[in-house]
Write a structure and sequence with these properties.
The chain is of the alpha/beta class. The chain has a domain at 91-372: Type I PLP-dependent aspartate aminotransferase-like (Major domain) (Aspartate Aminotransferase, domain 2), CATH 3.40.640. It has 15 helices and 16 strands. A seven-stranded mixed beta sheet has the order 3-11-10-9-6-4-5, with helices on both faces. Strands 12-13-16-15 form a four-stranded antiparallel beta sheet, with helices on one face. A hairpin with a 7-residue loop joins strand 10 and strand 11 (333-336). The longest helix is centred in the last third of the chain and has 22 residues, at 375-396. The protein is globular. The relative contact order is 0.15. It comes from Wickerhamomyces ciferrii (strain ATCC 14091 / BCRC 22168 / CBS 111 / JCM 3599 / NBRC 0793 / NRRL Y-1031 F-60-10). It catalyses: 4-aminobutanoate + 2-oxoglutarate = succinate semialdehyde + L-glutamate. It holds the Pfam family Aminotran_3. Residues 1-21 are annotated as: Disordered.
């Protein structure tokens, strides 16, 4: 019996679409009402999570869609997963919810066990974690860790005390206590919508318009030609070109670059891929110049690419300094291995809750299910099959499936259309034909199913996609 059948014996076998439009009338009424107390303008439809099951999401109009988007890559095991329901009903969860401890000061006796379950799914080479509240928060916390590490190294000792000048100047937001430092990121990157995270984001203007920003540098992420096997030399030259840009920026930027942050696959920015050679090149450059290497695995993490963590495809040596996470892990924070990233003085990396033990309990339960059922390998197998089927569709509809990418990256698959209007029409029609699929950048379609998405779901998605393309 497949894992999806074990989890979801009553999962629908096909979509049900009852309305002529999505959102339907009940959703539209719900959106109008919600908009009086909450900004509901981005809402696609009002979901009915009680009726959602496995790989299918239901809405309040009675539509039931095959979900290949999964809350923007955030549903790891499908809807109403029984293992997660059990974790949610556990005594430790009840305590975590109603007490919401300030774990930096008053950790419960169960916290160490909760954290150890999370660490079971840590990336290779990482054995410490600091928890946060969201993906953007995880990245901003990682920046703090990187800056503090960088300055302690500059002082000559990771235990060095602060000078009186540093203590006084930082209260005025002035150097040396508040130094001028930068984080290097990449064009088309997305790392969040807070202040520092928005400063390293460059996917869409709407994410950061009107926000004061840090004037930090952005390198070029490689732009490859597809299919990859037909453009080996051109793409190798692209790696060399973009790595040179990175090194030149580190050497010449007007303030020191303390950290570099990068996604293993640029997700919101268009599902842009880069090679193992490029990522190892980044590791070599950051090691050479003493720059903290941060890998943002918020969207790529926890199995969707055929590895537990996407950067593990690259066999980076030494491993990244900090790996941020959220989304499918249902918790947030960063993993690390070097204890010198623990600040030299308590309360430097701190807030009231220091994350959320309730979310960490769910993260531990997710990790247990993923490892117990080997869902990463299963997702890779399904992804390879889905990609091969999409290649066939691309040959039949080359106008609507261009630059198909994600080969050997499990179900983390995307392609382009000619323009944003056609892409948006495709996404809308897919819903009306029974599949919830997402977009990214201006013209890309991205697939983000759960780890319980199987070949039967892939076949159904291909059937719906082919029907939809024939109607464009």
């Amino acid at each position: 019996m497949s894992i999806a059948s074990q989890y979801y014996p009553n999962e629908p076998t096909e979509p049900v679409v009852k309305t002529e439009t999505i959102p339907g009338p009940a959703s539209r009424a719900g959106i109008e009402s919600l908009n009086k107390v909450f900004d509901a303008r981005p809402v696609y439809f009002i979901a009915d999570y009680e009726k959602s099951d496995g790989n299918y999401i239901a809405d309040v109009d009675g539509n039931v869609l095959l979900d290949a988007y999964c809350q923007i890559a955030s549903v790891p095991l499908g809807y109403n997963n029984p293992a997660l329901l059990e974790a949610a009903k556990s005594p430790e969860m009840i305590r975590a919810i109603i007490e919401r401890p300030a774990i930096g000061n008053f950790p419960g006796k169960d916290l160490e066990g909760i954290i150890k379950k999370v660490l079971k799914a840590a990336p290779k080479g990482q054995d410490h974690v600091w928890s946060g509240l969201s993906g953007a928060d995880a990245n901003e916390l990682a920046f703090k860790a990187a800056f503090m590490w960088y300055q302690q190294k500059k002082r000559g000792s990771f235990n060095a005390a602060f000078t009186q000048e540093e203590n006084e100047s930082t209260m005025k937001n002035q150097a040396p206590g508040s130094p001028d430092l930068a984080v290097l990121s990449f064009q088309r990157a997305f790392h969040g919508r807070l202040f520092a995270s928005a400063s390293v984001t460059a996917s869409k203007p709407v994410h950061k318009l009107d926000l004061p920003s840090f004037k930090w540098p952005k390198a070029e992420f490689p732009s490859y030609k597809y299919p990859l096997e037909d453009h080996v030399e051109e793409n190798k030259a692209e790696d060399e070109r973009t790595l040179k840009i990175v090194e030149d920026l580190i050497k010449t930027w007007h303030i020191p670059i303390a950290a570099l942050i990068i996604e293993p696959i640029q997700s919101e920015g268009g599902d842009n891929h880069a090679s193992s050679e490029f990522f190892q090149g980044l590791r070599d450059i950051t090691s050479k110049y003493g720059v903290v290497f941060i890998v943002d695995e918020v969207q790529t993490g926890l199995g969707a690419t055929g590895k537990l963590w996407a950067h593990e495809h690259f066999n980076i040596t030494p491993p990244p300094d900090l790996v941020t996470f959220s989304k499918k892990f249902q918790s947030a924070g960063y993993f690390f291995n070097d204890e010198t990233f623990i600040p030299n003085v308590a309360y430097r990396q701190f807030n009231t809750w220091c994350g959320d033990p309730a979310r960490m309990i769910i993260a531990g339960a997710i990790a247990e299910e993923v490892l117990k059922h080997d869902l990463v390998s299963k997702t890779k197998e399904v992804g390879d099959y889905l990609y091969s089927e999409l290649e066939k569709v691309a040959k039949e509809y080359p106008k609507y499936i261009q630059n198909l990418r994600g080969k050997n990256r499990a179900t983390f698959i995307a392609w382009d259309l000619e323009d944003s209007a056609t892409r948006n029409t495709l996404l809308s029609k897919l819903k009306l034909n029974g599949a919830n699929v997402g977009g990214c950048a201006e013209v890309s379609v991205r697939l983000r199913p759960s780890l319980t998405f199987e070949k039967k779901h892939a076949d159904l998605l291909i059937k719906i996609l082919t029907k939809t393309l024939s109607e464009l």
